[in-house]
């Protein structure tokens, strides 16, 4: 039920997986209504490509891009200083608009900086508070994202929307999906984030959970960043968390910005509560 409108590392271990794309049919995407490991594998490949230079992303021609699978009509969105970037592209294999945002090597600074306190950003829900830094960063690219979606939809009217991102990029992807629905009536077919930090307080988590029911936060049990900002500062995750338990392995560098690679997607995961973002039955965070 929709929350009442009156309130209505660094040592960290981030999960970037680099897997080839194999798609059977477009219908496979359209019928997703629960966590799907194949879709997660595809979107984590898209997330890893975000660490490539913008010049390579424009033509979707970096090495990580080729491993992720083809995208057409790819446009890069960025802030005015080009310190943050994402892409919006079209997958003909999936008939999907694929939106992804890059992570950051200094995510702890983003989270901890005193300037980035929680913000009351949505007047309709005054009790919902969102991390100021994450919110303000998304606003710098929001208009670009919306314009790119409309441009692709003009040519591919039936395309669904998929969003993804790693670390900071996961936070921005979640806010993007939330605002696309809240402000523009655009549904995200699925949102898969990797190593995403908490976004705001409990009221905001409930709003995200209502407006973006197909959000899956994939984390590793040993990853620090999903535990930040800490819950004692009244930050709270939205559902649904997918927790990986396979042993961390040092792997090949995907880019100069990425230092640690999980092993690979495997059977060693558990899906947490679909009703509560902080599933204490899994283990305290």
UniProtKB/TrEMBL annotation:
Residues 98-231 form the Fungal lipase-type domain. Residues 1-28 form the signal peptide. Keywords: Signal. One of its GO terms (biological process) is lipid metabolic process. This is Fungal lipase-type domain-containing protein.
